[in-house]
Specification:
4 helices, membrane, transmembrane, mainly alpha, 110 residues, transmembrane helix, 3 strands, three-stranded antiparallel sheet, globular
Length: 110
């Protein structure tokens, strides 16, 4: 295993690749093709009810656009922070944390 962490979702600026879980796709190096790709993904995602196209294209297109357009980048960052806080609040409500799950697993084994 490598010592560096890899993103599960997003754009790796060092390699200029879009990571979606286990899938990694190269992105164009220049700005104009990236904007065209992101825009076409968002438009294609809005037509997700048609065959072949899907609603999954909208968030992927927004991630691609967020690399070059500051407005989209700020909105994506706000949603990311909101989602993280929401997950932390949910875990605090249920009393589950990553450390708590490890402790419970250790108690169950011993």
């Amino acid at each position: 295993m490598t010592s560096q962490t890899t993103k599960r979702f997003g754009i790796n600026a060092a390699t200029n690749r879009l990571h979606m879980g286990r899938v990694s796709l190269p992105l164009p190096k220049s700005r104009a093709p990236r904007i065209a790709l992101g825009t076409s993904l968002v438009i294609g995602g809005c037509l997700g009810f048609l065959p072949i196209l899907g609603f999954w294209m909208v968030p992927v297109g927004l991630v691609v656009l967020s690399q070059d357009i500051a407005f989209v980048r700020r909105r994506r960052r706000r949603v990311t922070l909101w989602w993280g806080r929401r997950q932390q609040a949910r875990q605090a409500r249920t009393g589950r944390t990553a450390a708590g799950q490890v402790e419970q697993a250790g108690q169950a084994e011993g």
